[in-house]
Structures are given as structure tokens and as C-alpha cells.
Amino acid sequence: MGAQQEAAVRSLLDSVVARDRDGFVHHFDNQAVYHVNAWHDPIVGHDGLRAEFERQAGIYTDFRYEILHIVSTDTLVFTERIDTMQIAGTPVSLHWASVHELAPTGKITAARDYYDMQELEARLASGA
Q: Which domains, from first to last, does the chain contain?
């Protein structure tokens, strides 16, 4: 169950690896909401998603991901990952979890990312 939905989320992540802004935005419904941090106000719609992709692309390079676990239904995909990137020349690996809600069209209608800001700060401070 959820194989097509999982493929959509993997393709979304691959667009981040490729720094493909248009590919990233294409995965989302026109009125999708994206919570960069699950507890923050969402970014809404393609214009907001495009701007957020550009903002993040200015912060990190060399993004890679390793999916540790993926669980899905016909409308939800949960991933637990290790995301690796360079931030200001420092290699950073973070534990990351995401929830993606998908419409029957296969487009993402909502996405919420969960990560530990203290882990990010510690990685940047230690340079690893």
C-alpha cells in the first residue's frame, strides 16, 4: 500500500538533491501547505514554495538523504531519514522526519518536517 505515494515523496527528495526548484514545486498541489518546522506557520501555494526553496538553497549545498524508515497509506507518507548537507562549508548530518499528505492526484497537499534544532546547532558548532 502507498507505493505510488512513496515514489512521489522520493521524487520530491530527489528534486532537492538536484537543486531542481521547478521539480520540487511540481510535486505539490497548487494550494499545498509546507511547514518547514512543523510548529511554524505554513508556507502556502506554489509561489511560497518556490521562494522557500530558493531561501533554503542559499543556506546549504550538497544535500543527500538516507531513508531509514518509510511508512505509507494511500494518503500519507512518513519518512525517518538522515539528511546530510554542507552549511557554510561545514558537513552536517541530521536526524529528520517528515509527514506528507497526498491527494488522489498524487500531488502533495501538506508537508511537515521535524528535526531537532539543538542537533543542528551542535553539528555546526562541532564542525561535523
A: 3-126 (3.10.450.50)
Q: Model pTM greater than 0.90?
A: yes
Euclidean distance between CA atoms 36 and 43, whole angstroms: 8
pLDDT tens, residue order, the chain (128 aa): 589 999 999 999 999 999 999 999 999 999 999 999 888 899 999 999 999 999 999 999 999 999 999 999 999 999 999 999 999 989 999 999 999 999 999 999 999 999 988 888 888 888 76
What type of residue sits at position 1? M
The helix (H) or strand (E) run that includes residue 49 is helix 45-57
